[in-house]
User: Fold these one by one.
Assistant:
Number 1:
Amino acid sequence: MNIFESTHPLVKHKISLLRKDAISVKSFRELTKELATMLTMEATTTLTLSDQAVACWSGDISVPMLAEKQPTLIPILRAGLGMLDGALTILPCAKISVVGLQRNEETLQPESYYENVVADVNVRTAIIIDPMLATGGTALATIELLKASGCKKIKAIFLVAAPEGIALLQKDHADVDLFIGVIDDKLNENGYILPGLGDAGDKIFGTL
């Protein structure tokens, strides 16, 4: 597994702004979108290219273009929706798959309530988007769902991740690459990331 923690100064700066306790819903949404755009740029640096013929103003030329079908973006409901517009800024032609998973606050295990994965996921790179990688349960369930659907190339983007969640994915799915804004210290006894962002879903949807 390749784990890419962003070194971009603006990513670090914007995540630091997200951590503010009194941040407004508007600011949280805007920063989440901006960070999703930046991290999607990083996550797509390994997409393959092939030379293709193009009619240019100066005549026919051979130029590098994406060799494979556009990726499919997979926001994990509901917080992942806050990153979707930012990711689409980089991949405006991407197909969108949707997975609905929520964490049982007693068992800390994910529970599925919705899934809609594009039919040809087997020939696309799948890019999971979710603000937080905490225990890793929902990301693990999403990866297993995608693989069961035939997906062979999977990446995942998180704004903030805990070492425990990374370790879980690394143990069971070493072929999945992770692109992370910041790796935080640890989880608390309730499975929340420290220092973390709080409940990203509530802050994006204004349901605090």
Note: The first strand starts at residue 3 and ends at 5.
Number 2:
Amino acid sequence: MTIASITPYPVRMQTDYADMTLFFVRVETTDGVVGWGESCDSFGISYPTVLARIVDDVWGPAATGRRFPEALDALDAKRRSVARTLGFSHSAAQSLSAVDIAIRDAQARSAGQSLSAALGRVSERLRVYAGNSHFLESRGAAGHIALLTPLLERGVSTVKMRIGPDWRTAMRVLSDLRTDLPAIDIMVDGSELFSVAESLEMAERLADLRVSWFEEPVPASRIPAISRIAVASRVPLAYGEHLFSTEHMLDTMDAAAISVVQPDASICGGIAEAQLMARTALGRGARVVMHLHGSPITIAANALVAAGTPGVDLIEYPFHLSPMLKRVAPEAGFDVASIEDGCISVPTGPGLGIEVDTDVIEAGRRAFLDS
């Protein structure tokens, strides 16, 4: 069985947060088996046509017409060959991630097996942490609690809040939130917005508020700056969504002493690379949790990586996407109502273990083309 086609799918879909663009890849074999993959840049792909062009020009030609094992080997060889010209970060890594996930989905489906057969499986359920995309300063503590309540009522006890440019106001809201939710584990995402000086001042306040980690206070590319913050901060620093390979992660860990690593299969080059990143980080003594921000395709891919990696039992849950999650894969069990005791179930079906509604994806594709 060989790969007959690799088709990029830029789409536009409405969520509770925004009218978002996303990027999917569809792989079809000569026997008609279809696999789906997805890329992520954390808040929807801003330029999905760029990713589509890379798939059409680089990754697609390398894998099309090949059998499954050879296709993955060819992608790895192509990745190495273009590293000096195209590079391997951001769009290059994200686009390859979608192709890799789609090929592995099709490969496992053709064998009638879950991807867990290759990844291993140590967990049937994963704890989720609520990923809140609304800046802390956008509303008061009561407003944030209103957003979080549906998850708190379903047993979610860990939440991540984002700090925007008005960080002093955000700190006041966070202090109120800590008072109102004394037993909830809170993390904070800096969204790469701040200077070293601002980050250090924030880290002191976050430590006093018992925040569990401070995520991306400065851009991931600024390793010396990360190191300065990590040395002084009483709060662990977290990075991952802008670490595009295990090598990139190791360079960052060696130079900057980050202690929380957040792999994402839809960012770092695919499923095998995400698991390698997770296992390597665990071996270095880091805490590992899965990052994600996307459709059920991304959730399934990262859930399978986590479920196959001892020591990883926590996965991000962007709850503001829940209505879209239900539309794209109605039976996947990834909507808010499917969370039980703060956990989601790991898919067990063939491939990624979920069935997507192709009519919904096609409608999103048309919406993108018409926009």
Note: The mean pLDDT is 95.
Number 3:
Amino acid sequence: MTDDHGDADAIRYLQVDVFAERAGGGNPLGVVFGADAWSEADMQRFAKWTNLVETTFVLAPGDARASYRLRIFTPTREIPFAGHPSIGSAHAALETGRACARAGELLQECGAGLLPIRVGGEGTCRRLFVRSPAARVVREGGDDALLRAALGGMRLGALPPAFIDGGRRWWVAELADEASLRAWKPDHAAILALARAGDGMGLCVFARADTAAVPPPPNPESPGYDLVVRAFPAGVGIGEDPASGAANGLIAAYIAQREPHGALARGYRVSQGRETGHDATLDVRIDGSSAAAVIWVGGRSHTIVDGTIRCRIGDAR
């Protein structure tokens, strides 16, 4: 890539705040353009250096139908799909003019296949929704000893815990109430053991919002919410994720299957990240019902940093 000053070593780099009604409240993401010649090792080194939950590389598509190809890296490994990198990268591709929506959609090529991303609105009001990969329950119930250790005796909610596969593999568990979920001090070593045993991401817990504790939103930048989520992806070396698109997609698929006529069966709003000093807002839309439901997870993003860099980390240059 050659930048506006003719520097062939420069690449375009953005940092994006994802799933945030206001800039600074969501989940940070690094997005790299122009690194098509980099090796996988180069990308991994750069992702380790950024030290963000995920860093993505927007590349030329291999499939002519796709808007672009996306590779997603945590500081320790590449992953096939994640929600917040998909939404943030789509935002960055639109902001930089590297991709244009067709019929209100982008088509992302990634390790999970071709995934559509719905585009609604423009500029700071734009909301993007990625279609979550189809999900299946691998096993259900709270009789797993490692799961019991990871939950640490927390009182459970209406739905039993389940190990779910859908682009990512997570244990999900509903806790009895919002206050307990927000105050919980998890045992990260126990969650890591649980993740390793199932080659999964870790544990994601959720609770239905205590409506008495959720004030009506005073303005559109302080929305209400229906579900509270905390995610602990110990399997990829992360303590707690401020906003988890893929995990929320699995929770939504589970709710759609188990409560097809419930209050959340058509969609809802999620609050996540306050326990880590963030305040993310994710919107979930559910098309269809039960096992046939199609899940869309999305929200707003904000560009925080936009510039060019010259990378001299390892062999990446």
Note: The mean pLDDT is 91.
Number 4:
Amino acid sequence: MTFSERLAPEAVTIDERREGTSFALPFFVFQGARDVLTPPGPARRFFDDVDAPVKDFALIPDAGHFAAFRHPGAFLDLMLTKVRPVLDHSSAPRP
């Protein structure tokens, strides 16, 4: 946690919208429903502002900020059901 404590002052000053909200590639937000570092409400509002060819938002129940590590099965399921189909479709040969 001492490493995380050093990141905290910089982390609270990040303005994701300053980086832009328009992306030419798919955009996914998968996070814990109980994330206190990136709360679901503000994350969803940012997601709603994003313009991307494909986008999806999902909360992993009973998970916090490290949802992908603490609930790897749920995270993998989202990757396989939400991301992989987009990748499979985009890599298909085009006529």
Note: The CA atoms of residues 89 and 95 lie 13 Å apart.
